[in-house]
Amino acid sequence: MDSDSNETVVRQLSEGAPSNYMRARHPDLFSDTTVSAVHSVSKEVLSYHLETLTNQKDEATFEEFARRLCEKFISPNLRPQTGPVGGGDGKTDSETYPVSSAISERWFIPDRAGADQRWAFAFSAAADWKKKIRKDVKSIAETGRGYPRIYFVTNQFVPSKDSASMQDALEERYGIPVTILDKTWILNKVFEGHSLDIVVETLGVGREKTEEANRVGPRDSQRIAELEELEARIGDGSKYNGNLSNLVDDCIRAGVLSRGLERPRYEVEGKLDRALRLARKHGSAKQQLAAVYNWAWTAFFWFDDPTKTSELYAEVETLALSSDDSDDLERLTNILPLLHFSVTQELLTPDTAQLDQRLVRAREALARVINLEARPNNSLHARSLALMLEIVEAGKKGPDALIDIWKRFKLVLKDADGLGAFPFESIADGLTELGKHIPESPEFDELYEQVTDLLASRRSEGEAGKKNSQRAFQKLEKGLHFDAIRWFGRAVGLLVKEEYRDELSEVLFGSSLAFEEAGLYWAARNYAFAAVSQDLAEFTRTGNISVVNPTHLKRLFHMECRLGRTLYAIQSHELAMLVRGAQAHDEKSRQHYEEARLFDSRMFGGLLLRLVDSDLAEIRSLPDALERLAMPEARLVALFRLGQDQVAREEGWWPDTESAANIEDTFNRWYAYFGNDFFVRNISLYSGATVELTSAVVGCQIIIEAANNLVSLAVSEALLGGIEALLATSLEHRLLPHLERIRFRVDPVTTSGNAPILTFEDRMGIPVGVIQHPAHFELTTKADVLAFVEWLKTAAVEVIIRIAIPDDVEGWSKQVFAEENALDRALTFSNIPLITGSFFGDMDHLSLECWVASTDRSYDAIRAEPWVPSEIIDPESGVSVSEEPMDGFPFDTKRMKHTDMKIVSPIVVSKWNDARWRATLFMYSPDKDAPPPVLGIAFENAEAGKAIFDGFRERFGEHDPDNDLRIAVIRGVSSKNPFAYAVVVGPNVEKNLPESDKLVGFVSRINVMQPKNDIHLRNFIRQLKRDGRYLLAPAHLPSLDAEPKPMLGLGIGKYHLEIKEAWQIGASDPDAVVLDLDDPPIIPPDQPDAPVIETLRKKAEQQKGRDRKA
């Protein structure tokens, strides 16, 4: 190629330049375009051509050329010439016109004052430039327009001395600053500013000799496309809908893209300066830090300008030192070594670099963050950064100083083992680079070996986690939610790593979907909450709103609605709308925004339709708030529930001619759309002193009454979610639930420590869990953070033991804890109080007042009668639209939900185990005036027996005329003893028959008596038939040889007693529990096809199946 030719190619610098170092280390950050364009125009040719314009008196051509250059490098808002050629009418050749700051702040030029000032421009190709400038400036000044600045562009060479003296003289005479731009400036802007296209288009020079030879590399091709899209968006103020923080992100990205394309320095720095200006005005501190840091980094590694880097470091330092995030302080530790290098290479003076003072301030900031042990990843990262800073000065202290640093680095890596979010990759990269320059030592080799081993382990685990996640999503697509939960559970612990952040978010999201499909709504909610928390943590770290996935927020909103948590749903909706609004750059994204808004509004409306009438007074001030929250459809529901139909008509929701019946039908269909089981029954507005949270796991209902504050609720959410996650897959493991429901009370107390305390109290014979926790968790150390997780693990296991027993404890434990990693899925993201604190800040509790403004109108509840939704029947199928058909066999355990199963039992197994039912006794009298007969349950432990009957009386009352507590006597249960009989105490199965798609389990207790005769039983039955009632009462029997002591004062009046023969028991009869395969019942000779025969056969098969598994 001709040496005189100009070539826009990758810039080559001297061998030791920082840009060469960065290019060699990261060629991917630089342009991969080999040749962009070749113009056979040299400086000499262009200079000569400019002179010919004077000879040819071609003023118009030069003016167009000069104006184009000024538009590019001085101010884009130039008007074309306003008078005859040469400004002969005494006016300017061009001038700036005012533009709004919203437009000008997006320019990337050094001086934006021309946006709101009227600058004058004069262009001249005259040989006598002095005469021409005097004439033009005089003419401009005499217009009286008050121009604050004049630019004079000439095609002549103007010596610097002459230029300065002329500018001073003109300003002194006319009071207007004048800037002379001569041929030197023109040539510089053409060749250094990559403006040959302007030369070709305006002057025609080189047009016939221009050779397009674009060989744009693949990286540059992507960069160019993205940059063009960004600049178009930046230039169109309507694209951001007022979300200017998003504009800042785009401007930062545009600067980085221009840098990667190796655009001219004026352009790259102009765009980085634009990003910084906008960040200061519209952005967060994180965005300001990102903008100025990128500029400082670029100045050093792209433009070999350590002086500019040192200058910009001052602002980087100001922003970073006030932060408690190690990622922010890492910006300092990245630049300080560059300044140190520049001083050692005499590229900077010590005074300019201010290295000693800056190192001290950085070390102090790192020491502060190191002590924030409640964020262990953050603290440990700061420790590693502090060691990196020590390396900068270690050369002054001798080789032993480095050896000590390597040893301490090994301790850091040891402590980091198990901390998934610790940035191993960046530490490893830093140590790798150091290995090229430091003295050889065994200690560094040991450190490096430790790093590589850890990296290999993390990458292996990460890749395994990704495969587990892929399999989980496959299972989820097939409707196998329990299998999906298992695979997600294996993945989650493996992906808790900084370098697998995106993959972890996918797993959290997928887990939430799987838990919801399994009917485990708290686990689903907590996993969605964790996914959002991950996003917000990344946003806090980067200041970039694009890292927040609105789909995660939509999932959280969805789950909060399903759980009836109105205020939490509003909070997640509000945040989702902010995020979607900030990310709505184009028509497609704005359409997604509207679709998401409508989805939220309709679902929240469905929730409000299920509010109980007693809560309606609480939402009188809600309608206007819902309008502000972009949920006008939900506002309509609120008005309807309040009986404010006329207001809705006045607002244009319905025409005056719309009948009340049609309006009613609209809301009936809205109600039916979500089905009967979509939302929980207890929808809360959080207006009381306590809030009830419920869950259904393996058929047992867990009810928590929590104090109405964010901490108590977070503790409750964590416990419910943890239990659900642990027991998620246990429907397939013959886990035998033995408790219908269990209750808890959660309250804050003034106490030290960071772990709640769980105890159980006996209230009327029913165990109630009492959880007390610190009003505020003081999380200052890693141990503080882990204390809650350890408590949750212990508490969840304790609760599980109380509600269910695995048929095969060893097999269940192996499957769930070893093979499924159930503890990982239950505990990895279980610290809900910590996540809640980061999400809600210092708020104590939520209330509707958080969203209601003082000027909002209050709408009284004026509906004359409570609204009761009507059932909507599909005209084609004849089925209620609220009833969703169930796919597949209803009791397929692989596709069942925990909400498809419930346990019905008045039996508190732990109490019965403590009481030890030893015998059944009968009290009767032949006297007609005697009280009713007594059926006594004789317990070895009197206090436990009393507690059982206290519970019965609390639940059923002193009399049970409806036979809710079923008592049965089964005769003939033993072929070895014809007088043997069994007594069954349990729920009334007939009154608790399941719906068609539900499974109900019943828990009963039995006692088999082996009397020598049946005289007592016969006499009891005889009197029962006479009186039609009996008393069920506890008795104390400390030993089988002792005399039983009835406790008649705790008895319950009963009016039903089922008496049957054992041979009558069919396969689906709940009394089959009394049958013993080793001692089968008596079958009369005249009953060859007795139902019990088939029952015994099935029971034997079930026993063989369990034996095979064992």
Structure characterization notes:
The longest helix has 36 residues, at 442-477. The chain folds into six domains: 1-33 and 218-283, no CATH class; 39-211, Trna Endonuclease, Chain: A, domain 1; 306-440, no CATH class; 461-673, Serine Threonine Protein Phosphatase 5, Tetratricopeptide repeat, CATH 1.25.40; 691-844, no CATH class; 905-1109, no CATH class. Helix 13 runs antiparallel to helix 14 (326-344). With 1110 residues, it is of the alpha/beta class. It has 39 helices and 26 strands. 51% of the residues lie in helices and 11% in strands. The strands form seven sheets. Strands 16, 17, 18, 23, 24 and 25 form a six-stranded mixed sheet that branches. The protein has a five-stranded mixed sheet with strand order 8-9-11-13-12. Residues 1-15, 83-90 and 875-891 have low confidence and may be disordered.
Q: In brief, what are we looking at here?
A:
With 1110 residues, the chain is of the alpha/beta class. It is elongated and about 140 Å long.
